[in-house]
Design goal:
By secondary structure, this protein is mainly α. Helices cover about 55% and strands about 0% of the residues. The protein has a single domain, classed as Serine Threonine Protein Phosphatase 5, Tetratricopeptide repeat.
């Protein structure tokens, strides 16, 4: 039994939505989610919209996706979480949004805490220290 081919229009839409997350186009991205695009949509590398927004340092987009019930505990194919991505990029505001939503500093591999230690990021280490 072979899988049905994915409609090229769906692939194009998914690419557009991932670009909105990378670019921090919060209102347009949320409109797509409100219209039915899954908030936890993943790309071919397992990156969610939340992971992409966190990595590309868009704290307002991260906050909006979290309000839409994005799963902050999801990991990509490399075991990375949105929190680890935000720590790596040293985005204090994004890290704070994720921690406030309950993101686990020890989830994933490498975890956010391990990322802060490995790259010697004292501000990130301090920010994560208050979260068990």
């Amino acid at each position: 039994m072979s899988a049905e081919p994915i409609d090229p229009g769906v692939i194009e839409l998914a690419g557009r939505v991932f670009d909105l997350a990378r670019g921090g186009y919060t209102e347009e991205l949320v409109a797509y989610v409100d219209a039915g695009v899954p908030v936890n949509l993943t790309n071919d590398k397992g990156d969610t919209l939340l992971i992409l927004a966190a990595y590309h340092q868009h704290p307002d987009t991260v906050a909006a996706l979290l309000e839409c019930s994005a799963d902050h505990s999801r990991v990509n194919d490399r075991g990375q979480t949105a929190l680890a991505a935000a720590v790596f990029r040293q985005s204090v505001e994004t890290v704070q949004h994720l921690l406030d939503a309950g993101a686990d500093p020890d989830a994933g591999g490498p975890s956010a805490r391990a990322t802060a230690a490995f790259f010697d990021l004292p501000v990130m280490t301090d920010l994560l220290a208050g979260h068990p």
